[in-house]
Design goal:
The complex is a heterodimer of chains A (227) and B (418). Chain A is of the alpha/beta class. Chain A has helices at 47-54, 77-87, 103-113, 115-120, 124-134, 139-142, 152-164, 182-199, and strands at residues 5-14, 24-32, 36-40, 62-67, 70-71, 88-91, 170-174, 202-207, 218-221. Helix content of chain A is 36%, strand content 22%. In chain A, helix 3 runs parallel beside helix 7. The longest helix of chain A has 18 residues, at 182-199. The chains are: A alpha/beta (227), B alpha+beta (418).
């Protein structure tokens, strides 16, 4: 039976070693497949920690996190690394790209770490060009460009192309728009959504900017941390 | 493959620091290898100060002292060897040739060596090289003198210059043999041995300048040079002699025979053995050289370490990105190790090339100026040990930042504050 939910969290309790309070205490949370989710929370609310937990970088002891029916706490950390590489794509706030690689090399990099993604891409060059086109970056102009020549907005779009190559089922975006100005931000989101919708990618979008809420299917609020 | 590509591209991206680090390793490898070559060259040159001589014979003394005054012309002999004893061993049935040496006079601080033609024919150094006359000829007349290379260079002497010998050694002797000037007839080629600092005259000349000196000081009515030219002079004693045997296997027997010689207390020394033990006493020079090289090497390791450590901070973001794509922490670790290893390997290879290139070009000059003969084809166990130790040390030094990167990548997760 295929999973209904992209992510399912139950009874999750997390605290940093030595801390007295639980940073995260989530009795139940589900993120349906192919939906665009807006994860809202003030700083210190544990957004980043939650992302690290879902992506399998952080260990946790109490509770359950299931990503596409796979229980993360039953996997070894090496297995979680592979799982992340195979099924997820990431876009960060800033400096998403390796400065010593070209645009195309940056976009293709995830294929080096995941056999699953690698298998899905038959023609690497064509796929990079398709993604660049979809994100409105002229391949003829940008394919072999050094990423340091690009504007911040363009760099973020290259980061999206890299996150989406090999069609991962889950895209995790951590404040990718906070360094973009208003017009660029709207265009960026439009392109991101279009590409994700056409592949049925689940989007988990973290931001502290409530004006973006209306663009998403669902909004999840994380309560503030220990006060 | 990904690892290789990423680390090389990342190194290229940090061209300047990478090149500087490689260069500093290159420099220390070059120093290390050159010093080793020079050390070996110095040792070989030293041990080859005299070769193909089986025994050195002088008045009864320690072998070391005998070697010092007869070969290196350092210090003074305790006593002389009588001409009769010399003749006895010269004509011994086992003897191939002998070179007589008569010391005691000097010229401006350079030792005067009284000897005969055998010196030019039989004296061998550096594993069998003969003395060569670079200018002029060997001494023939009573007052002819042949200069070692350095003597001629330092004192700017030419053929036909007149020089005066002084009684005793050292630059400040007051008793000159001024009444008997010598004529420079020949200058020897550079040998890198004490021969370069010697002034060579015939045994008869030594005898001649001391006629009338039997009391230890010049007599008032001493002979003139002209008187002596016509007189048949016969040496009565020499300081020491070098000896080669017909068969080397008999060397210990002859040595014993000389040491037990009843007519006169003599000492026969094996030059190879004494030279080796003398070199041993000089080993502190070697150790200082080694210490210096090690210090240079540690400096370059420190710079490699600092470069990696500094880059660690700038590259935390890079590591997070790689982790987000599924790179395992040990990939991050290997990435750093790989970078430090490629930098080290490049530095070491370049160092080897630079060393041999430089020595190939500078080698003839070193031979000329210092008499150092560098053998570039000779690789010692030391070289291999040093280089592998350098690589090992660089590897260990690379591991520390790699480990820190590994740990960072675990704790940073996918999001680090920039």
């Amino acid at each position: 039976m295929p999973a209904k939910n992209a992510i399912e969290i139950s009874n999750l309790k997390f605290k940093w070693e030595g801390a007295s309070h639980h940073l995260l205490d989530i009795p139940y949370l589900q993120i349906p497949k192919s939906k665009k989710i807006f994860l809202q929370g003030s700083s210190g609310s544990g957004k980043t920690t939650l992302l690290n937990l879902i992506s399998g970088v952080l260990d946790f002891k109490e509770g359950n996190i299931q990503v596409f029916d796979q229980k993360l706490n039953q996997m070894s950390s090496a297995l979680r690394d592979s799982f992340r590489g195979d099924h997820m794509g990431f876009v960060f706030q800033l400096f998403n790209l390796l400065p010593f690689l070209t645009v195309a090399e940056n976009i293709l990099l995830p294929l080096e770490f995941s056999k699953v993604k690698n298998k899905k891409v038959k023609d690497r060059e064509a796929e990079v060009k398709r993604l660049l086109n979809a994100l409105e970056l002229d391949p003829a102009k940008y394919y072999s460009r050094k990423v340091t020549d690009l504007s911040v907005g363009q760099q973020q779009r290259v980061a999206v192309a890299r996150a989406l190559i090999g069609s991962p089922e889950l895209l995790i975006a951590d404040e990718p728009t906070s360094s973009l100005d208003h017009d660029v931000r709207n265009q960026f989101l439009k392109l991101l959504f279009k590409e994700c919708e056409s592949h049925g990618t689940t989007v988990l979008f973290v931001s502290h900017d409530p004006t973006l809420k209306s663009l998403f299917d669902e909004v999840i609020s994380l309560k503030g941390g220990p006060s | 493959m990904t690892l290789l590509k990423l680390s090389l591209k990342s190194l290229l991206n940090r061209k300047v620091t990478t090149i500087l680090t490689i260069l500093s390793i290159t420099i220390s490898v070059t120093l290390l290898l050159s010093l080793e070559r020079i050390r070996l060259g110095a040792r070989d040159s030293f041990k080859n100060t005299i070769s193909q001589t089986d025994l050195i014979v002088g008045a009864r003394s320690s072998p070391l002292q005998l070697l010092l005054y007869s070969v290196f012309r350092i210090g003074d002999p305790t006593n002389n060897v009588s001409w009769d004893s010399y003749q006895f061993f010269k004509n011994h049935k086992e003897t191939k040739w002998t070179i007589p040496i008569s010391l005691g006079d000097s010229h401006k601080g350079y030792r005067v060596v009284g000897t005969d033609q055998s010196y030019f024919d039989n004296y061998k150094f550096s594993g069998g090289k003969s003395l060569e006359i670079s200018e002029g000829k060997k001494f023939e007349e009573l007052f002819d003198v042949v200069l070692g290379y350095d003597v001629a260079q330092k004192l700017k002497y030419k053929i036909k210059d007149k020089i005066v010998l002084a009684h005793g050694s050292g630059a400040a002797t007051f008793q000159d043999h001024a009444n008997m000037p010598f004529k420079v007839v020949g200058i020897l080629n550079k040998t890198g041995t004490p021969v370069d600092q010697s002034v060579h005259v015939s045994l008869e000349a030594i005898e001649a300048i001391h006629v009338g000196w039997e009391t230890g000081a010049p007599s008032r009515d001493g002979p003139t040079a002209d008187d002596l030219l016509n007189k048949k002079l016969k040496p009565t004693q020499i300081t020491a002699f070098f000896m080669a045997l017909e068969s080397r296997s008999g060397v210990l027997n002859i040595q014993r025979e000389i040491n037990d010689y009843r007519e006169e207390p003599l000492t026969a020394a094996l030059p190879g053995v004494v030279l080796s033990s003398l070199w041993q006493t000089l080993s502190f020079v070697e150790n200082i050289l080694k210490l210096l090289t090690t210090l240079v090497f540690f400096t370059s390791l420190l710079s490699l370490f600092l470069v990696l450590l500094t880059s660690l901070k700038e590259r935390r973001r890079e590591m997070s990105i790689l982790r987000s794509m599924g790179a395992k922490p040990h990939f991050i670790f290997l990435l750093f190790v790989f970078e430090s290893c490629s930098v080290t390997i490049l530095g070491i290879s370049l160092g080897i090339i630079v060393t041999f290139g430089t020595l190939l070009i500078a080698g003839p000059m070193l031979t000329d100026k210092f008499g150092l003969i560098l053998d570039l084809t000779q690789w010692t166990a030391n070289d291999v040990t040093y280089l592998s130790m350098m690589f090992g040390a660089a590897f260990v030094v690379g591991i520390i930042p790699a480990f820190l990167a590994y740990r960072n990548s675990l704790s940073d997760g996918l999001t680090i504050k920039v």
